[in-house]
Amino acid sequence: MKIREHIPLAPLTTLKLGGPARYLAEAATVEEVRAAVDFARGRGLPLFVLGGGSNLVVADGGFPGLVLRICLTGVEARQEGDKAIFEAGAGEDWDAFVAHAVSQGCAGLECMSGIPGTVGGTPIQNVGAYGQEVGETIDAVRVLDLESNQVQELCNPACEFAYRSSVFNTSRRGRYIVLAVRFALEPGGTPHIVYADLKKHFAGLDGLPSLAEVRLAVRQIRLSKAMLIVEGDEDCRSAGSFFKNPVVSEEQYRALAEVAAGRSLSVPRFTVPSGQVKVPAAWLVEQSGFPKGYARGSVGISRKHALAIVNRGGASAAEVVALKDAIQARVEEMFGVRLVPEPVFLGFEGD
Ligand code: EPU
């Protein structure tokens, strides 16, 4: 395996900014993953595992360690009881994998069509969209455990999936390298239409749409929000949602609603299974003086969705962080809610 030096990372991310990696390794086998880890250890370098770069902000100074790009591919499928088991290499393109599952008539991933990135990135933050989360269908995650140096499998409960979180980005952050993900899908299953945007899309339809129709609809909806990567559309030069949707108690929501009522606004709310209330971060951002299309130097807010910070061309990571800070400060000042960023920050202080 070739390990290259001083490699620009911006082209490997969807936000297209930030500095170079001191070293970059591309691993196509588990042995190469191990070799890259040994290389970093031998030189005392920090290690960062890169998937599709779709949820990543790289600092302008780049990363002084080894960036390991996971290129493990391959998809295997088999039937187990009433489930269709699909095991995909971590480096497989996520959307191509979803397309494959849908083409096989297997339900469980269709609402997560059109999401950029790789299969291996999905368990880290428990990727979700339009009413589905990968944590609902992941059977197990095969990892290289950097503590024991062993390949092992974490079953679903061991991953502790929650909203945009798992052991991989919380309690055991940095301990595992995801090698493959195993999904248990439903052959011949019906599509999952619970999300308002999807219900609206299919409102006139008699009966249920097919999985393929749902996949197409999700891609269309994402396109309208610039959450589908389209060459040449600068509104999708982003890291997707830049903040998590705050989940608050009923009491906190009432306090928030009162502040908003003072400004003649009513705060949208979505009740989550825990009984708590999810407040759309996009709404908070928009109402705090950062509307769609807002511009500040080379960065701004997407013209099609208030939750995406976009690089309008030639932006620096410092500009992105300054806008993020300004949004957090203003939302907190106005609504008393501290927004938590969703992307991973690489090469920044405290990394
Ligand atoms: N809204 C606004 N302004 C906007 C857009 C939305 O006020 O410009 C408000 C509306 O009230 C709307 C609500 O926000 O009803 C929710 O908006 P949307 O349906 O677009 O979803 P979201 O909550 O902003 C989440 C995920 C997305 C995922 C979509 C669809 C998070 C942080 N984001 O966005 O995931 O695709 O739902 O399920 O949970 C990502 O994580 O990068 C991502 C794109």
The distinct bound ligands, ions and cofactors come out as: uridine-diphosphate-2(N-acetylglucosaminyl) butyric acid
End-to-end separation in angstroms reads 27 Å
Rg from alpha-carbon coordinates = 20 Å
User: Which parts are unreliable, with pLDDT below 50 for 5 consecutive residues or more?
Assistant: none
Question: Count the helices. How many?
Answer: 8
SSE run: EEHEEEEEHEEEEEHEHHEHEEHEEEHE
**Assembly context of the chains:** single chain
Name some characteristics of this structure.
351 residues, alpha+beta, 6-stranded antiparallel β-sheet, 4-stranded mixed β-sheet, 20 strands, 25% helix, binds uridine-diphosphate-2(N-acetylglucosaminyl) butyric acid
Structure description:
It contains eight helices and 20 strands. The radius of gyration is 20 Å and the shape is globular. With 351 residues, the chain is of the alpha+beta class. The mean pLDDT is 96. Helices cover 25% and strands 26% of the residues. Strand 6 and strand 7 form a beta hairpin. The protein starts with a strand and ends in a 5-residue tail after the last strand. The site of uridine-diphosphate-2(N-acetylglucosaminyl) butyric acid (EPU) has 19 residues, from helix 7. Uridine-diphosphate-2(N-acetylglucosaminyl) butyric acid (EPU) binds next to helix 7.
